[in-house]
Amino acid sequence: MTERATVVLVHGAFVDASSWWPVVLRLLGSGHRVLAPAVGGRSLDGDGRYIRNFAERVGGPVLLVGHGYGAAVVTVAGGARNVVGLLFIAGYALEQGESIAQIRDAFAPTAISQHLVPAMFYGDDGEPGTEITVAVDEFPRLLAEGLPEDEASVLAVSQRPMSVSVLTERASGEAWRTIPSWGVVSTEDLTISPDLQRFGYRRARCRDIAAFEAPHLVIQTHAAEIVRFIDDILGEIAADG
C-alpha cells in the first residue's frame, strides 16, 4: 500500500501559519497528516531552503501547499527528494530566475499596491532594511472580504511584515518542472492578480486548476473546498504510485 503523503502548508505574506487553521482543522478531522511551519518573509531563498529542509525531515512523501507568497517558496523548496506534489493557492508559480516584482509588473496592478505601509527594520547583521504591511483599516477589504468582521480585524492587527527585498529576489529553482502540480485561482483577489495566478499555473503545466469566487484569503473563506481539492490531489498522487 502506498504511503499517504503528509500535507505541508506554507503561509503567505502578511499572515502567519495560523492563517491555515480552518484547513488544518478539516485535514486533521479527516485523518490526514498535516504540518504548517512558519516562514520569516525576509528572504525567498532562505525561506525556500528552510521549507526544503523541513520537508525532508518529514521522512515520507510530502505534498507542498503554498498560499500567496508561500507558493513562491514551495516553487523553490519543492526540489526536496520526498516532495511528490505541489499545490499553488492564489499565489506565484515562479520560473527560475524570475522575481515576484517581475511577474507582478507583467499584469495590471492590484488594489493592495496603494495600501502598503513601509517601515524600517534591522536585520540580524545590524543592517537596516525596509519591510511592508497592509494598512490595518484596508486589510479586511483587500485580503479577507467575506470573513466575519471580527476575524478579519484580528488578522489585520497581527500581520507578519515582509521584507521589500523579497520582491526583487530571483527564484533559485522551479520545482514544477519535474513535480506534478495543481493550482487554485481566487477570482476576486485584490492582492495577487487572478490573471497572474492563471498564467503561472498554466506555465507550470498544472494538472488541474480550480477557481473559487474568493478573496486572497481563500484558505479561510473556502476552507472546505480547498480541503476537498487537496483530498482529490492526494488520491491522484496515491494512484500514481
Automatic annotation (TrEMBL):
It comes from the Bacteria. InterPro entries: AB_hydrolase_1, AB_hydrolase_fold, Sec-Metab_Biosynth_Hydrolase. Residues 7-228 form the AB hydrolase-1 domain. One of its GO terms (molecular function) is hydrolase activity. Keywords: Hydrolase. It holds the Pfam family Abhydrolase_6. This is Alpha/beta hydrolase.
